[in-house]
Fold this sequence. Notes:
Layout (H helix, E strand, L loop, with lengths): L10 E8 L2 E8 L7 E5 L9 H12 L3 E5 L4 H10 L6 H16 L9 E6 L1 H12 L4 E7 L17 E6 L3 H11 L6 E6 L11 H18 L7
Parallel strand pairs: 3-4, 3-5, 5-6, 6-7, 7-8
Antiparallel strand pairs: 1-2, 2-4
Amino acid sequence: MRVSFGPPGxxxxxxxxxxxxxxxxxxxxxxxxxxxVLFAHGSGSSRHSPRNKSxxxxxxxxxxxTLLLDxxxxxxxxxxxRTSHLRxxxxxxxxxxxxxxxxxxxxxxxxxRHIGYFGASTGGAAALVAAARRPKVIExxxxxxxxPDLAGRALSLVAAPTLLIVGEYDDVVIELxxxxxxxxxxxxxxxxxxxxxxxxxxxxxxxxxxxxxRLWFEDNLLRRKACAA
Length: 229
């Protein structure tokens, strides 16, 4: 099913135009949603990532729309599978995230009035760079097992409250996240999920990520009390 950006309660595939390419995404519009979270995948992942889909479902249950977007075209993904270099092209990924955000802002509906980012792995850096480029649009950012350090100088320009989630066993990434957090000039927090590795594959770990993300978006994107667990 293909939808453009229809009435509340719809979901399906969308095609998002960006400079020189068209990106595939999955858009879910819960009834009466007042905000939308755009997912930025990285490190060889896609909109079909079971981990990000799981988090998105929790947000949908709380009335938050989600757009899971492939930041690379199928042809680029094929190249990246061989070279692994496009997933680290943060400028490219961030530029496409910005283009998708601008596309969302042109669509009708309440969801596009309040937009946040959820970034995973290198998508976390792309989300932060894109947030720095759209400081008046992006209202909240969450990074899961991300590489915010790759956002570089853009970190100091981020205006959206930022949550960095890392696993307890992901020692190197924990340190990278803490160093990146020190460069943020906005309200932020680093959350370490106990007994979790980089991919949060341990029992209950991903549920904890979803819980933390839900609270962050409820508090900072929608600015209302979180829905019941």
